[in-house]
Request: fold
Amino acid sequence: MARKLGWSDVTPKAHWLNRRQILAAAGAMGLAGPAFARIEAKPSRFSTDEKPNTLEEISTYNNFYEFGTDKGDPARHASALTTDPWSVEIAGLVDRPGRYPLDDILKGVALEERIYRLRCVEAWSMVVPWIGFELRSLLDRVGVQPSAKFVAFETLVRPEEMPGQRSPILDWPYREGLRLDEAMHPLTILATGLYGEEMPKQNGAPIRLVVPWKYGFKSIKSIVKISLVEKMPETTWVMQNPREYGFYSNVNPAVDHPRWSQASERRIGSGFFARRIDTQPFNGYAEEVAGLYAGQDLAVDF
Ligand code: MTE
Reply:
């Protein structure tokens, strides 16, 4: 296990802008609509040095079932989603519950660039230069009560704008959860952008979770509710098929999905016949996170 990380290890100084500043900068540059101001962000020590996928690849090959189950559906349909105004309800075992406007959440947070691999349970992967901030900084601000053991997340339900929600493909809202220590880990971020710009809607605008050592489905998009709870929450894929998907869903090449291997992965964009890459335990972050699971049998707690 690596030494305990301090805030200064992971927060590059003076390399962040808040959402208002980004929008103001975009305005000053005469840009309408979404902001396209570049955000200067120093590489985080947690970033992979692998080459990021292109913006085109990252924003056209998506899983966001609210917009349909085809990989191209989110890019086709997500433009209809209204992401401003947006607020996130913070509920449950916290000192300061409430519905927080996104701009208030982002006021003063340290936005960083974090280049992470996203390893999907479908055995493909991408490398994404996220812009985000640590979830723990938000949880600290709302005051987590001692009885809280888990964090539950919910995505927006708005079938008028999310055509996939007009069918019962999943039991909406899309739900995810983390154990509190996972949520408080400095690798866990809430992302509001990528490639130095605001988040494309198909990638979960305006705010989504990114947990780089877990399969991609844990990284819930377009979050409207965060609850601190005592019991392990119900999560979408466990509700859907508990034999195939577990609550933890740590990337683990040694534990196969019942219908396919998790030992290797196909990097999006590398061509269909490109050599497959070996999947790494915890997606390459074992040194940072394996200690969270000391004493657990990860073939049981999969
Ligand atoms: N969040 C919601 N709300 N709905 C979804 O269908 N799909 C998950 C996750 N978050 C999903 C979601 C899955 S299966 C993956 S692999 C990632 O989003 C994909 O994120 P990306 O499209 O940004 O690569």
Remarks:
- The pocket of MTE is lined by residues 62-66, 118, 120, 155, 174, 203-204, 216-217, 219-222 (CB under 6 Å).
- Residues 19-28 form the longest helix (10 residues).
- Residues 5 and 186 are 8 Å apart (CA to CA).
- Residues 1-27, 31-36 have pLDDT under 50 and may be disordered.
